[in-house]
Amino acid sequence: MRSLWIAAALFTAACGHSHDDYDTFQACYDEHTTVESLPFQEAVVVCCLDHPIDGDSEPCGATAPECLTYMDANLSSTATTSEVEAACDEYVIQKGL
Known about the structure:
- It is globular, with a radius of gyration of 12 Å.
- The chain has helices at 2-14, 25-35, 40-50, 64-74, 81-95.
- Helix 2 crosses helix 3 and helix 4 crosses helix 5 (81-95).
- Helices cover 63% and strands 0% of the residues.
- The protein has 5 helices and no strands.
- It is an all-alpha fold.
């Protein structure tokens, strides 16, 4: 899984992807899922790690429970609770790398 994230990071860097600031997490998520066609988990992780949200460079918190609380308040999607938990767990893992 780690090699997949490294490959994705290299691909994004090669494409000149910027780390835009978004007004809302939803706007970031929508762009990454609709424009870039990222799957749910990857879009959540990218938005949590790579994009300031309303000026906050760590919008999703430092732990999985903080991330879950943030997702509950700031993301509208069709994802299941299990998918959100998995995305938050992956975010915390990636944050620690």
